[in-house]
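Mods, move this if it's the wrong board.
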Amino acid sequence: MSDKGLPEWLEPVARAARTIAPEQLSRFLPPEHGGRQAAVLILFGEGERGPELLLMERSGSLRSHAGQPSFPGGALDPEDGDPEGDGLLRAALREAEEETGLDPAGVQIFGVLPRLYIPVSGFVVTPVLGWWRAPSAFHAVDPAETARVFTVPVVDLTNPANRATTVHPSGHRGPAFLVESALVWGFTAGVIDRILHFAGWEKPWDRAKHVTLDWRA
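Not the wrong board. Structure tokens:
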């Protein structure tokens, strides 16, 4: 363990979080004004196959990002407090508990990534990094919002055979991961891709391997 209570394998992520610039994470950056503040929890744990990430799959009936795998998270509520203070951290933990049933007392926040923008929904999203030092049970709390909750071993995320480039009907291309019977793409895949890169975990992969997205995506 490090002096901050983190496992040694997680230190590269903590270091990257302290130095990474917004434009190194995404080309979609928040506008000067507007946008709804939100936070997601990027939760690292230790599973049977080593380091892993907690993800969820959104219900197919939702109006935005339906059926997409994502990090737990959502918009700030008034009770979360100041978004310039600890409000975003509280929002990330509260949403994770509401969506996955995990116990936030077992999560150690160890970093915050720069705010990013999701143009299709107008959210200004802050990725909050957590270490699951005391894992708890998880499940899809509300099936109307969450189809399932699952963990993905980091070794599967770094496996070149599980990587691809998605091609959206709009022409936009981005990284994707084919893991746990899911296609992880969009905002979530973009952030995972950058974390793997800046943590030094990325392995060369075939960017010419394309997956065409449905027009409803």
